[in-house]
């Protein structure tokens, strides 16, 4: 499957981004709406993934300080290839903005995965919307996301 990546501005694409994030985080994962949307959205760079029919299937953001987050993917598109396209697009933004270090806030089950990609834990485990999380960081030049077959 082929995807189109759009770099979008929060002000112009807020409706599309919010709709997708609400569907995934608020309705599916039961994250309180007030925890999902914050004042960092207006300053972050956002990407929107469209499938071959032009349907919005995923989104993510990167903040000016390099935090990758708010990655929302519709349930029937949650495959490694989709995440790779999304992360690659966010890393391209980081490179273009000369961000030296990227970070993520992951659930504890994801710590090992991110460590395999070159990330290291930063600080203590904390609670976010009732979910234990760990902040992980990686120098952008050290990022080693495994390559997956994008044709499936």
Estimate percent helicity: 25-40%
Written as H for each helix and E for each strand, in order along the chain, the element string is: EHHEEEHEHEE
Helical/strand content category: alpha+beta
Name the CATH architecture.
3-Layer(aba) Sandwich
Order of strands in the sheet with the most strands?
A: 1-2-3-4
Within the CATH hierarchy, at the fold level, what is the topology?
Answer: Aminopeptidase
Shape: globular
Number of helices: 4
Instruction: Calculate the mean pLDDT score and round it.
Output: 88
For the record, give the distance between the C-alpha atoms at the N and C termini, rounded to a whole number.
Answer: 6 Å
Could you explain how this protein is built, in words?
The protein has one domain (4-142): Aminopeptidase (3-Layer(aba) Sandwich), CATH 3.40.630. The protein starts with a strand and ends in a 13-residue tail after the last strand. The protein has four helices and seven strands. It is globular, with a radius of gyration of 15 Å. The protein has helices at 10-28, 33-36, 80-96, 111-116; strands spanning 4-8, 45-50, 56-62, 68-73, 101-107, 120-128, 131-139. It is of the alpha+beta class. 30% of the residues lie in helices and 32% in strands. Residues 147-152 have low confidence and may be disordered. A four-stranded antiparallel beta sheet has the order 1-2-3-4, with helices on both faces. The longest helix is centred in the first third of the chain and has 19 residues, at 10-28.
């Amino acid at each position: 499957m082929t995807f189109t990546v759009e770099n979008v501005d929060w002000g112009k694409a807020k409706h599309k981004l919010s709709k997708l994030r609400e569907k995934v985080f608020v309705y599916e994962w039961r994250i309180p709406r007030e925890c999902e949307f914050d004042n960092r959205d207006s300053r972050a760079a956002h990407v929107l993934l469209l499938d071959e029919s032009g349907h919005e299937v995923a989104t993510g953001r990167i903040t000016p300080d390099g935090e990758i987050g708010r990655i929302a993917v519709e349930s029937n598109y949650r495959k490694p290839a989709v995440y790779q396209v999304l992360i690659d697009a966010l890393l391209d933004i980081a490179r273009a903005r000369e961000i030296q270090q990227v970070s993520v806030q992951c659930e504890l089950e994801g710590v090992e995965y991110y460590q395999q990609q070159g990330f290291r834990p930063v600080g203590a485990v904390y609670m976010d919307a009732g979910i234990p999380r760990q902040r992980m960081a990686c120098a952008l030049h050290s990022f080693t996301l495994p390559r997956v077959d994008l044709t499936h």
